[in-house]
Amino acid sequence: MKSAGKRIVVETLGWILLLAGVAAVFLPGPGLLGIFAGLALLSRQYEWADRRVEPVRLRAMLGAAEGVETWPRIVLSALAAVGLAACGVLWIMKPPAPEWWPFVETWWLPGGMWTGITQVASAFIAVGLIVYSYRRFHDQPDAVDKLKKAIKDRSAKEPVS
Asked: For this UniProt entry, which segments traverse the membrane (predicted)?
């Protein structure tokens, strides 16, 4: 009974994360991360999800490695995370529309407090991923070469549609 309950919980959480990730692609939030997390959970139950997780994981890891190759990239990533957090705080505080705002006031900072909260949460996730990527990949060309080889090997194995 425990395994059936666990399977239901994992599958339900996987679908929720997948759907929330798809929504967050269009709304503020870590959409691709949500999609990947949902697919990773669903890959325990479904072969179609399992086939999609590994290539996405490898490409995401390569992107993380390339994002910390140089100091300008690291600094720009960190500044983008700080900017995202600042925007989130602005959304949470919801100041009145400035005089120069050309549209109706309801279009000023749409989404309200929850938009700001997801922006701040996304900034924290981004900083965590930058730190993780730095510790795992910065000045470690062997790790990056392994990822590139794994992507190349996987691409060679995939059938052409």
From this structure: 12-42, 74-93, 113-132
